[in-house]
User: Fold Cytochrome c oxidase assembly COX15 homolog from Paramuricea clavata.
Amino acid sequence: MILNSCCLRSIPIIQGLLRRQISSRGYSSCTSIISRLTGRTLSIGNRLAQLRKWYTTVNTTDYVRSETARKIIGYWLLGCSGMVYGAVVLGGVTRLTESGLSMVDWHLIKGMKPPRTQQEWEDEFKKYQNFPEYKYLNEGMTLSEFKRIFYMEYAHRMWGRSIGAVFFLPAVFFAYKGWITKSLKPRLFIYGGLLAFQGLLGWYMVKSGLDEEKISKTQIPRVSQYRLAAHLGSAFALYALMFWQALTHLLPPQELANTKNIRHLRIYTHGTLSLVFLTALSGAFVAGLDAGLVYNSFPKFADRWIPDDLMVMSPKIKNFFENATTVQFDHRLMGMLTLSAVVGLWAMARPVDLPRRARLAVNATLAMAGAQVLLGISTLLYYVPVHLAALHQSGSLALLTFTLWFGHEIKRNRLMPKV
Ligand code: HEM
Assistant:
């Protein structure tokens, strides 16, 4: 007894010394070490309690050095992902109010200063008048109207720069404090790289809308739908990675038996996540081609189930990316498929004995998928008004958020045995 209690008290010290080997060996060696240290075979209840303690101290200290530092890093990443969410919404409103092409050059530092004097504003407006959007869409625009679209795009760009500052400055501080461990470091490099890439991609996208030669062919000033989809897709990827990592730091893992049902549910959740992501990408093509302004009826396309101009372009593959009808048709289909997948996920999760938080997450995912489809249909029926389209766009990130949350709640705990 005395020996056992001494051993138990010395566990935290030995944990620290052994954490690297143990985290790479997994559950069985972990429980056998606990058993060896305590000199007794633990009951299942005790094992789970011990494992929970081991997991929170051993597994997460692999990322950061202390509980407080772990939480601070978690909230920081959550804040950064929230700011990326904000940038997506702001970017959507900028596009929907046709403000995105008002700033015709890009400088990381110089671009932070907006025009101040009357002369500076007039010079900026003159520059804008040399580009296709003014010529084909906004001819005769007044200076005060120009200021409105300029400030919209300016806010979007400054928000992007603020995310850079909120990400990079604390990252340097945390590294200096020694809070960032080996396994977190490469992740932070990926987030930082994606963030910088996102800025470059944004400018690459805007440039396609300033190209006189290209725009003069259609006389419709808008950015390339391919570049818009890439810009949106990389923002979604950055958001998802940061949000997932924030959850890993902030939400303690749950004691979830590693059963066959749970394993299947995990695989299915990953499939649903990919579908949400792909549907959002297809939505970016709808937005990029203004394809929400053709066939504003639902469920039929005018009076047909399948529109007759679905495959009019040649080669056929071009229709999927450049024909507004096909792009809208695909997006509707994918939206309905995503909704069905989420209903399937919810039905599959229903009989499984899930912790309260996981149950809440799957219910929220179902509700959001329903709301998102309703928002999509309303956006279409009302001819893409700014408020509905912006809500529909942010709804797609909310749906991704809830699906990620559920995926995180049921993610594999390496220390739980397979049953
Ligand atoms: C779960 C399902 C859905 C998801 C995740 C989703 C996602 C998206 C996204 C991310 C965009 C791009 C917004 C932008 O960049 O501004 C978009 C655009 C659009 N979606 Fe969906 N969508 C879904 C379902 C639907 C459905 C069912 C419809 C209609 C029947 C629909 C109609 C539209 C329309 C009209 C646009 C263009 C709006 C614009 O021009 O800004 N969506 N969708």
About this structure: Residues 1-42, 57-64 have pLDDT under 50 and may be disordered. Residues 251-418 form one domain. The longest helix spans residues 143-177. The pocket of protoporphyrin IX containing FE is lined by residues 92, 95-96, 232, 276, 279-280, 283-284, 286-287, 292, 298, 331-332, 335-336, 338-339, 369, 372-373, 376-377, 379-380, 384, 389, 392-393, 396, 399 (CB under 6 Å).
